[in-house]
Amino acid sequence: MEDILARAKKVAEAAEVFVVASESTPVQFEANRLKHIQAKQSTSVALRIILQGRIGYSVTTQPGDRQRLVDMAVETAEFGMPAKFDFPSFTDYPQVKVFDPDIELVSIEPMVKLGQELIDIVTSHTPGIVCEAEVMKSVVSVDIINSRGGKANYKIGIFSLGVEGTLIRDTDMLFVGESDSSCHPLWETKSVTDVVLEQLELARNRALVSSRPMPVVFTPRGVASALLAPLMAGFNGKIVLEGASPIASKKGQPVFNQKLWLWDDPTIAYRPQSRPCDDEGVPSQRTPLIEQGTVTNFLYDLQTAALARTRSTGNGSRSRGGLPAPSPTAFVVAPGSASFAEMVSDMKEGLVIEQLMGAEQTNVLGGDFSGNVLLGYKVERGKMVGRVKDTMVSGNIYQVLKDIVAIGSEPRWVGGWLNTPPLYCPSVSVASK
Amino acid sequence: MSEIRIEAIGRELVEIIKRYNADYLEAHLEQSETSHITYRGRELESVGRTTSLGGNVRALVKGGWGFVSFNDFSDLPGKVELVVKQAQFAGTGESQLAKVEPVVDVVPGDADKSPVVIPLAEKKRLLDEYNDIIWRTPKIQTSTIGYADSYKKSVFLSSLGSYIEQERSDVMLRLSAVAVDGSDVQQVGLSLGSRGDFSQMQNLHRQVAEMAQHTVQLLSAPQVKGGEYTVVLDPILAGVFIHEAFGHLSESDFVYENERLREIMTLGKQFGNTALNVIDGAAVPGLRGSYKYDDEGVPATETYLIQEGKLVGRLHSRETAAKMGEKPTGNARAINYRYPPIVRMTNTYIVPGSVSFDDIIGDIQEGVYAKNWYGGMTSMEMFTFSAGEAYMIRNGKLAEMLRPVVLTGNVFTTLNNIDAIGNDLEMNQGGGCGKREQMPLPVANGSPHIRIRHCLVGGR
Q1: Is ipTM beyond 0.85?
Q2: Which of A191, A231, A264, B328 ranks highest by number of CB atoms within 10 Å?
Q3: pLDDT per position as a tens digit, A364-392
Q4: Rounded to an integer, what is the distance from CA B181 to the centroid of its chain?
């Protein structure tokens, strides 16, 4: 790394080297049986330079390819965006615990056992169901150095397990599933299988729903599949800077329901999305986004923050070998006081949405969502009576999150990047066959 | 400068795998280069170059698979030993792979036509022209442009004695315009791709201008009322529709170990009316899903999935073909060396019929004409697909513009509800397909205009 930095400093005003090395071991089950054991090793080295005031960028998987990396970065700098920021000179970072050495000690055998247990519990509850399961451990190390003396490195271990089941009766297909992840090894499967068994119970019967606006409870998984993508876009500093976020000019204004609190938090101990610093070496912080319904902050990386004349919130993330861009780490919605049972019992006719399919494939920037209810239940007179199918649910998150009736008291992690309780919305458009 | 050459490593691995005992062993090696340019708003946002070199070995023992991927080329025997151990650990049954002839071939490549070597200045000049067009449109708030190209050389070798070198190039261009009125934000996108031919990204000025104008018009367009409609899809959206609605269900890895699904997907079963014919094939030349050999070294084919409305074929890897007693179709693909090959589509399309567009919409009293794509997803039984552009059809004529619509269907009823197939096939090269974690895989899909009765549309 030092050698690349030294070579880059010879030709450029400033430079930064970012190295990610990862090893992961997925153990996969298909059709209720162990099918695949994998080991994946990968290293990538990214070089970012500032040359005549412009940003150049290159990436390679071959650490030996040093001069080539520098040459490619120089080639791109001719066309790059003018750099408005300086690389940070931090060397001290908050203590964010993300590495449990026990992860490295986990061998294949107990991972296979966990996967088999996930499948056994689900198949013995519902004979005929066909399951896939995955148990995975990964260790990722991140190293950043730059020409201003900034230096960061950390190691993170991630353990995850999940199961998905397909139950087919005639041509009717039911999909159920749940997963969990942590920076600690996960030794128990109950929190995952309990959710799946409950889904199977609730979906046992079919129910018809009318086509009209009606109250909807989004479960944590429902929130993730319907509302999260527009929300993440809306608070992205880059989209805000362009004026393409509906809340771009609403900082300090009560846009959402006053019961709603939301923050981005990469500092929670032993969570897979946590980290001591972002991918530019800016220290991690907890950033409040919505307080009592009021928009309080947006998420920034260094360059976007400089353009917006503010400070980076430590949200610079690199995906697929690209330049850093603002990106959420983990969104956390503060729990409220209503239990899920109370929400359901409050509805005369309504829906509980566990998963919407395709909801993000519309005008996400504008806050719209519209999707097919892949897993959802009809509520009649305060009781969940069965699964609905062939049903579309549509709305706009800025409307839906303004009108919220209640926020649940039972938060849950979904996919590692969202922690939310159920949300109860009074009126969402439903179209059904 | 790295001196690692994948051909040399390939020759080494050919010898190494002979020393290990497995029912089957194969290796993939890959060397690739990419360049990308993105714009946000008026400014060029990011420009970058990447090079990548890596490989994997895969082993099958008693029906269990091991897979090891790496970009550190040290200790190759250790990697092969590990993958065989993994497969031994996973395997408890019987290995089944469809018989194929070993292939030794060096496919003449298009290295000299690699889009990556075209000067960045030339690419930037073109993108500047498009961005200028977007920004000349009144009321545009912002725009994004993403251009990416790649050139990849790969080596495949297996314990069958196959050794194949192939090359491929790919170009993608995505543009979008955003118009804002107060807190109302509308966006329209345009997505194009080609099998490495940069010239296909040129001369799109008129399409870019239309995209920008359309975005502004959406601000005053109404949203459709949710419900069932007769829907007419343009060739681009109909291509996405057939990919989502049927293509994924014909990928045999969903089917082969699921008894119930095998019953549902019995060959000969009627899925649509007799005018419906659907083909998938990498052997169709020159498209983004085209290749000579798949990632298991199986020659590409052209497979009828639906013929005269009946299910007649499906897409296979060597394993799914063997387990279902059918012929391999050359559809095992991996997005890169970090993943094992799985069954994927290539170029999927509805074969054109004879009905003109005017006749397709002529007798519709009230319906929706949906064009272009935002996206699509499937759960196999149910699927959604969304249109970037939509209009009401009233009394047989196109009427007012609508905001983007999301449509949904059920594979067992919706294909039967297709009652008109146009005569105007077009292939869409702008899509990327995602399955498990592997996305976006270059595919093409296409169709003529089609009409679907009783299609559920999400809305107000």
Answers
A1: yes
A2: A264
A3: 999 999 999 999 999 999 999 999 999 99
A4: 35
